[in-house]
Amino acid sequence: MLLIVVTEGDPKREIDWKYIKSFLDYRYGIRNKVKLKSICLASKSKFQTALPKIQNEISRFFKMRPGSSEPVVVCLCFDTDYGAPAQEQNQRIEEFARAHGYRLAWMHRDVEEVFLGRRIPDKEKVRASDAFVNKQGIASVGLHKLLASKFDGAPYGVSNIAVVFDELLGEPK
Fold first, then answer.
1. Which pLDDT belongs to residue 133?
2. CB distance 37 to 57 below 8 Å
């Protein structure tokens, strides 16, 4: 299986991807079972620019595996942010995911609130994500925070990421 995870943020720093990869490794132990590929967009508002990048990764995957019928799954993992403009954008992203058969995992309000339990100033995000990975912070994240079913009315700091990936990857390790 090829699992393409599309995140937002600086593609050179891949902050959101660090948290999500930690979660995937910890919960599913998928290091050798699934081919993981991240695509980091500069902003979630650029979600439509992911299409050619996704198609490129899928083509590359099957070039390396001629005749393969392995499944390809695309999951968009974005912060919900807050306010009316964010709600409108979240709706467009949800429609885009549905139209292309992609899954959507959301972090309400942002990835740091979900995995660290608090907002992090922009200038500290790289250091915080590196510390989370290096100190295996994922082990202290309450699973209940990752099993939300909807973000409308949900408290800040929750996500549906475990719901989405449990459906895609089956039982956790």
1. 98
2. yes
User: Do the beta carbons of residue 78 and residue 93 sit within 8 Å?
Assistant: yes
Number of domains in the chain: 1
Length of the chain: 173
pLDDT score for 40: 94
Q: Give Cα separations from 148 to 26, 77, 164 (angstroms).
A: 19, 14, 10
pTM over 0.90: yes
Whole-angstrom Cα distance, residue 68 to residue 85?
42
Domain hosting residue 71, numbered range: 2-169
pLDDT score recorded for residue 31: 64
From 44, 37, 48, 33, select the one nearest 77 (Cα to Cα).
Answer: 44
Check if the beta carbon of residue 103 is closer than 8 Å to that of residue 168: yes
Amino acid at 56: N
119: three-class secondary structure by DSSP: coil
Please report, for the domain that includes residue 138, its CATH number.
Answer: 3.40.50
Chain-centroid distance, C-alpha 105? 6
pLDDT band at residue 61, thresholds of 50, 70 and 90? very high
| CB distance 132 to 19 below 8 Å | yes
Per-residue pLDDT tens over the stretch 36-46: 999 999 998 99
